Amino acid sequence: MNRPMDANEIKSMLHDRAVEVCEHLLPAGKVDGGDFKVGNLQNDPGESLVICIRGGKVGVWKDFSSGEKGGNLLELWVQAKGLEFKEAIREAKEWLGVADAPLQRHRPEVTKRRVTTGLKRLEYAEVVEDSLVWKWLTETRGLSPEIIRLYRLGEERFALKKQGPDMINWVLFPFFD
Fold it and tell me: For labelling alongside 3, which of 63, 121, 156, 177 has CA 20 to 30 A away?
């Protein structure tokens, strides 16, 4: 099954091309032994910002002037470009020439909406907006309306014999095989 690349895979690919990444992000810098040196994250000339480009610490960086530091080249990408993490991942993937496989969603076709309780099968209605169950799912449990609809969560009122004759609101989570 195809899946999106995660941040660790992106970091690993960036680390494999550490020198190229540094030259792309900070073209004023230069290679000095196992390090890449530049003035700072704003790409000023100098040697205050040191980025390890070889060995077990590849990607670790520190600006000895400002004290800023990071543990990988994706963090460096975020800081050097002034981007949010998600945007940095998107940009880094584009620079690396990789793309995620498109997500393939499968929505099961359900002809009967029944829940088996062990004793009987229950007909149920999907959760109605602004009902007590809806409010509990969205406000207390934090589910989005899209998720409630996508998974066809249901609601029903019935009593449990052990709990007495009072009717209780129930959330029903259908099972799709």
Answer: 177
Q: Which amino acid is present at 168? A: I
What is the strand order of the sheet 154-158 is part of? 125-126, 154-158, 168-172
- What phi and psi values does residue 69 have, to the nearest 5 degrees? -155, 165
Enter the tokens of residue 70: 């990071």
**Which tops the pLDDT comparison, 99 or 161?**
99
3-state helix, strand, coil in the chain (%, to 5): 35, 20, 45
Angstrom CA distances, 161 to 165, 166, 167, 171, stand at 7, 9, 10, 18
Per-residue pLDDT reduced to its tens digit, 66-110: 999 999 999 999 999 999 999 999 999 999 998 765 555 555 554
Q: Which of 85, 59, 83, 63 has its CA nearest to residue 73?
A: 59
Q: What is the DSSP letter of 152?
A: T
The DSSP secondary-structure symbol of 10 reads H
